[in-house]
Amino acid sequence: MYAEVIVDIAHSNVDKIYEYSCGEGVVAGSRVKVPFGGRVVDGFVVGVSATSAYPPEKIKPVSFVYDEPPALVEECFFLMNELAARYRVPKAVCLRLFLPAEMRAGRVHEVYKKLVKPLDLGISLPKSAKKQAEFLQFLKGGEAEYTACCERFGRGAVNAVIEKGGAELLKVKINRTPASFGEGAEQPRQLTPAQRDAIDKIEGSPKTVHLIHGVTGSGKTEIYLNIISRALQQGKTAIFLVPEISLTPQMFSQLKRRFGEKAAILHSGLSAGERFDEWWRLRTGEARIAIGARSAIFSPLENIGAIIIDEEHDGSYFSESAPRYSTAEVAKMRARHNGCKLILGSATPSVETYSRAVSGEYNLITLTQRINGRPLPDITIADMRKEVKRGNSSSFSSALREELKDTLQSGNQAIIFLNRRGYSHTVICQDCGYALKCEHCDVALAYHSEEDCLKCHYCGAKYRLPRACPECGGLHLRYGGTGTQRVVSDLKKLFPSARILRMDNDTTSGKEGHYKILKEFGEKKADILVGTQMIAKGHDFPSVTLVGILDADMSLHFSDYRAGERTFQLITQVSGHSGRAGEAGKVVLQTFSPENYILRYAVGYDYAGFFKNEIALRKATGFPPFTLICRVMVTAADDAPALEALKGVYFGAEELRAKYPGEFIFLNKMHSPIKKIQGRVRYQVLMRLESGRLLPQIYDLAVKYSGADALVYVEENPVNLS
Length: 722
Ligand code: ADP
Ligand code: ZN
Known about the structure:
GIY-YIG endonuclease; Rossmann fold; 6-stranded parallel β-sheet; 21 helices; binds adenosine-5'-diphosphate; binds zinc ion
């Protein structure tokens, strides 16, 4: 037999299939060790055949076969080819995505316990063997753990009985199942007519991709769980993806109560051993639902009946290391391959996804009401320009102070959300709310302290810092917003007896810290939770009836074409925390630009209106989804190799432009906005293209100039242009 092997080395020079001779046990999907260039390396078997085109003396034998069921499922080879072609990465790098990191490193192994199983309890024993007789007697009770038996009857006696055929020793695998999961079973809920209707529409449509656009609290989760149940009933499997930050113990326990052992959870908060065992439970079919963040799209499942991506708009669905894949794109590949449906869900779909839905490419399902007709919280806008004029320099408007007072008096809880992303980068006028913008691109400028200037991340234009606001002449230009600490100390002055929890990067060391704070707040051990983006999603706090959003406009002025989209998403998601259970909720939104159209639509929960406006703006200004922003990044330890690679990529792109002038809207090479990260210099070739037509050629350029001295990679519509 001959094995076709891909060696586990991430280099394009060895990105081929090598042949080795092997025994019968080796099949497609097996992991092996093979001799390679004077060493022995790990390899993946991608196929076996009875014959070889090479003369037998040229073929070396496989050195070692891992003693395990084949780790890779058939579909991996299909996806490997798709991904390698799409993102131009070596096949070995694609295959690694399908295996838990712990497995490749060889650091984690299965754990077993030994059991003694009774065989023939009538064996004859010498009279003197009292302990052995006692042990035989004991075995009438059935199987027992070997070590416990040895402690009780002595190892000699136990082994003697086994040797004489009275019992046999079994090795049984122990699953390290994460302990934090809830007990008890949960029955599916009776679906509401709206939920029923949504499922009927999904089932009745021939389309592969379905978008559930449902307001917060409209019961999307119950729809997902119902779809998963149906897949299981048909003997199939399912993948359920959520943003990493939503993988909370609350959510695990709900899924475990509903699906029990059939659900496996792949989560970075598990121990390596737990993750390894959960993964094998999926591979062997013992578990049939994979639940996890982005990387769980590579779960080793066969015969998939449904793939679900919750909070599909979330930025964490884009990989930030090679291959820089879009989870939805991989999910589509798998859905088509398995002939199953892909369900995307969100209260605030990304503009790109929603435009595909309105164009008819995706099946659009809209849920406009919360469960039980609960109202969406009322959002009030507080104009901070007026507060400044009145001499209020604290973080809180008078409206928010009043609402906080009422909430605390009634024994309810409040969340104060601080919009800190892109924090210190934009400059806004506190008198009129104007944010400094690029003359060519109509996006906010970013402040760069090392050069003390403003820059546009989309065209590289530089501007001097103005002393006064170009719009109103005001002198109160402000860099960034307030910090969480300042907010907490302001709150303490206003409400000395309130119990306050703070959640930001400083207070949440590791995932555990994050859960601990949420858990304490959920148990009502605090009255007010102050936090950043981390609290934006995924948690159900029934007693929260007030949400305050400070600096609502900060994200409006991100130096990013998606700034409006992000702001709408943030406001909607954060507001969704208020009034989820009994009492109606309220939201106070503080801003320096109260007339901004994004805020107006958010206050009215008018996604359709927001979308209509936003898509018209993108079309007029030539931004995605009408165009493609493509950045080729070059990083290196020194300037020389970086500039060399940069030149190569840039000239290559210029040649492309000469050949296809209509495709290029913008092409330039420059320093990246952040010039150095972790000692590596950063340069970029930035392009705005009419379409994705030239992407394969651009990826080729990146592969051509990437090497040991300079790392070159492509980003498509990057979430972050810094
Ligand atoms: P979404 O995911 O759309 O934000 P959830 O799935 O969290 O909404 O549902 C909101 C609330 O409604 C949850 O507390 C959930 O338990 C409850 N719920 C969902 N479906 C039903 C139903 N069919 N009957 C009763 N309660 C439901
Ligand atoms: Zn510009």
